Amino acid sequence: MSLYRKYRPQKFEDVMDQGHVIQTLQGAIESKQIGHAYIFAGTRGTGKTSIARIFAKAVNCLSLKNNEPCGECSICKEIAEGRFLDLIEIDAASNRGIDEIRDLKEKIRFAPNIGKYKVYIIDEAHMLTDQAFNALLKTLEEPPAHAIFILATTEIHKIPITIFSRCQRLDFHKVKSQKMLEGIKKIIEKEGIKIDDKSLKKIVSISEGSVRDALSYLDQISAFANGEEIKFELIEDILGCSKEEKLVEFLNILAAKDIKQTISFINDFIEAGYDLENFIKDLIKFIRKILMAKIGNSSEEFFEDDKTLNLASNFSFEELLFLAELLNNVLKNNKFSFLPQLMLEIELIKFVNNLNLPKENKNENQSFSGKIVSEIKNVLKPSNIVKEKKEEANNEEKNEKTSEGKSSGWDGFLEKLKNQKIVLYMALQGCDFADEGETVNLNIYNGFYFNRLSEKTNRDFVEGVFKESFGDQKKLNIIKAEKKEDRRDLIKDALSVFGGELVE
Q: Per-domain residue ranges for the chain?
């Protein structure tokens, strides 16, 4: 028998790290306020079905002790062996139609055969059809006194709101790594499996909060080891790298500002058969994890090793936020793109080019993609800057450090705005900057951004930063301007043909 079946929890106390759910159910049993319908929501392998069965034991147990099923009476044994007639489990993935629910409604009227309650566990409840949900509504609202419904689901957002209003919702969390580690060590001792802490920690990390997955991996590896001690290298050979290791590798490439390696990694990843969309989602989640570590809140979850924690020091807080936003935009736009892989590569090249690359390296050995990005950046620069050598010299003079040691001029203004309020910084991307002597005109073409910048609070903030960069001798004038057709429009049109978009 597989480990996850052999060690399926038989009592509430055996369940790992779902104390909030157990306390609620035991409280209902003790106060005799048992609900007629529950929704158990959570990711796979967190104990939803196991706790549903234990609850069925508890409400029918002939010798309940401290709100725990005794495990010795005939009802507890029958439920453990799958022979209890008053516990009905329905797999909604294969019994999702209205006929199955009608059959349930017909049989629910009959009194329990042996126990006090008939307990209906509907697994993967989100798979029921709309018609099946509608047929279930009235029964959930006014079931017989002897019936209890438990709907287990991994996709809570697919459950209709009308079902929600008739059920008590209990959310199951991913099992914390330390809790899972402690629980699996007890199983290892009972089974006599030889494995060191580093290897066990690797298995727990790869399982991503699912006890069932962790025990399945352990089962597979121990069978391969055939009684020998499980080595860390063996786990890597059988299970491969964890998602975390691949993500760490990729983020280290980005931190090294290596465009060639960035493209190669994505290309190899796709050719290996992995899903690009899932990779982006995993990367966004992992960046959030690093952000939490960077602000000193890594929760109780541990990273696989110290290399992951070191990532927090390789990126600034703003870079991590920008990268997460960039990936999220790629994810949203992928469905409209002819070649999603190319759009991800272009956006990551932009990100790498913005990581304060030394000036002498920016124009050396540029790849074709790098040249495209550079051309786009040149077009997106304010139209009145960098057109003649004389103007370049003027701009360099404006951007020199002031006597107070602060940047001045247009670039200094943008840099300060980016560091202090990135939302307003983004609003100024694509605008035209025109120095008219005593007045600096900002021609804003986007109506949404113009309205945002016209709000008093935002305008006062922008003017304050502008004053720090230009001093009192210049006045800022924000203008709602009409768009003119130029090279920027040509590039946008070209990219639209290939399913892309410009993002600065």
A: 3-171, 177-239, 243-357, 389-485
